[in-house]
Design a protein that fits this description.
6 strands; GNAT_dom; Acyl_CoA_acyltransferase; 141 residues; Aminopeptidase; alpha+beta
Length: 141
């Protein structure tokens, strides 16, 4: 059967879904049900009630992915990030996770995660150019 491969320079969500659907079916057949759950720990400004930071995570295949961590610059160094991470670890424990993983950039917070017991398991150099993207994990056994 002849096959056409077409470039879509501005891929749509519909095109992404067409690629994702058979991939998810394959993953389900091989890896089992990925009944993932998401959660957020929100930092709110007490005056405006506006969300000003926090942590966003996803539990999948008994691993917690810490997808986003943001603490306003003016509030850093006060233990807020550490509190967020400990709260996320508590959630992971309650959901019987094997471990936690995350990614960060060399210009973000690798030392912060190392102090909390996370170990590097991979890196992409020059992503972005002149910097490194780093991957960390922590087992919860």
């Amino acid at each position: 059967m002849p096959l056409d491969i077409l470039l879509s320079e501005h891929a749509t969500e519909e095109q992404r879904s067409a690629i994702l659907t058979p991939l998810l079916a394959h993953n389900l057949a091989k890896g089992g049900d990925d009944a993932h759950e998401t959660f957020a720990l929100l930092l709110r400004d007490p005056d405006s009630n506006e969300i000003i930071g926090g942590l966003y995570g996803k539990v999948s295949y008994r691993w917690l992915l810490i997808d986003l961590v943001s603490v306003p610059e003016s509030m850093r160094g006060q233990g807020i990030g550490q509190r967020l991470m400990h709260m996320a670890e508590d959630i992971a424990q309650k959901k019987y996770c094997i471990g936690i993983w995350l990614e960060t950039f060399s210009f973000q917070a690798p030392g912060f995660y190392q102090k909390l017991g996370y170990c590097e398991f991979g890196r992409l150099t020059d992503y972005p150019p002149g910097h490194t993207r780093m991957f960390y994990h922590k087992l919860l056994c």
